[in-house]
Amino acid sequence: MTWSDIVLASLKENKVGFAAYVPDNILTPLIKGVTADADFVAVGGTREDEAVGAASGAYMAGMRAVAMMQTSGFALIANALGSLVVPYQIPVILIISERGVMGEFNIGQTLVARTVRPTLKALGITHHTLTDLSTLHFVLDQSIKQAFTTRAPVAFILSPLLSGGNPAARAQLI
Amino acid sequence: MSNDRASMQILNRTALTRLLVQRLKHDEAVVAGLGNTNADLIAAGHRPQNFYMLGSMGLACPIALGVALAQPKRGVIALEGDGSILMGLGCLATIGNVRPRNLTIVIWDNGIYQITGKQAAATSGATDIVAVARGAGIEQSHWVRDAAHFETLIDRRFDDGGPLLLAVKIDDLPGKGPSARDPVLIRESFMRGLGSGGGKLDL
User: Fold this and answer.
1) Is B70 on the interface with A (CB under 8 A)?
2) Cα Rg for chain A, rounded, in angstroms?
3) Exposed, middle or buried, B202 (CB in 10 Å: 0-12/13-18/19+)?
4) pLDDT confidence tier of residue B2, bands split at 50, 70 and 90
5) Which of A46, A58, A88 sits opposite B69 (nearest CB)?
């Protein structure tokens, strides 16, 4: 199974049925997966805080929910996390594809990517950087269960070590 | 017509929120934006199907969209201020494309950022929220002419026939209710109200 197959399977096994996302290259197989699968209600948002809001609403109405975005989009959601998800104890699953590291050509991406982990840390949101196919299912499955059991959000950062990175973002020396 | 907005009667949010809540007979979910919008929802009488936002300005409609999609048989209403909806106009495009039949949006438009010092909002100038919403794909977007027109527009079932957006020109009077303060209690109460869990000691 590919990394994206394992992510989709882990969501489904844990009855995560609502997926809100903002498009991203690395996330393409996940977005295709959730939009094609009748087990998911999938909504593409125009901004990442909108996706987090929709996922929060869906959770409160009885559907386990995931919000998917790129690192640069994560930088838009500090307010949604700090004044909605965390204080209301809404266990939204966040999947963040990591740009800005390991061969990124775009300096804007490298800088904004550095805000992700400090923001998660400041808000006390558990996060795991996913790098390894062999432990991927265990980390996802157990952490998703923990999130819903303890009503706490969890963030998974998809490292290029796992995803192979975005070929369109690759730095090249001429 | 949306280009008639200058001729709309100036109404009062407290009174209209009360009218709306009195109309709710089927445990409709109501998601209220922060500040005066949710103060007036509380003033109309707390219901377990109410969700009160304490922050995340601009997310009342996205939250309501999530509720509407997760519970397609329940009517869902988002109450939002003009300044708040201006923060996230993109959600109107999402809603205009997803087209949830059970979602109604009410925009309280006083043209100002009332609780931060009454600074002018874009809606006091060139920006017409009904025109924006129609352009975003929510064809059933209407300016409310007066209180009787509001009553006519909400005399409907909320679980079907949407999405619908009503924009109301309102005065600058503050909300009348207290503020809800405890986010965990708000969520627990809302989830119980929607029959989706919450708030039971497992003993």
Assistant:
1) yes
2) 15
3) exposed
4) very low
5) A58
CA distance A32 to chain B (A): 17
B interface test, pick of A69, A88, A89, A92 with most B CB neighbours within 10 Å: A88
DSSP state for residue B180 in the 8-state scheme: P
Question: CATH for B2-193?
Answer: 3.40.50.970
Annotated domain spans of chain B: 2-193
Interface contact flag, A62 B195, Cβ < 8 Å: yes
The pLDDT mean for chain B works out to 94
With the CA atoms of B33, B34, B39 and B40 taken in that order, what torsion angle do they form, in degrees rounded to the nearest 10? Answer: -30
Neighboring chain A residues of B51 at a CB cutoff of 8 Å: 60
Domain edges within chain A:
3-21+41-95+118-164
Query: Which residues of chain B neighbour A56 with C-beta distances below 8 Å?
Result: 59, 63, 66
Q: Which of A103-107, B1-5, B137-141 has the lowest mean pLDDT?
A: B1-5
Helix or strand (DSSP H, E) at B80: strand B76-81
Average pLDDT over residues A93-105: 96
Asked if B94 and A49 come within 8 Å (Cβ–Cβ), the reply is no
The yes or no reply on domain A3-21+41-95+118-164 and CATH 1.10.10.10 is no
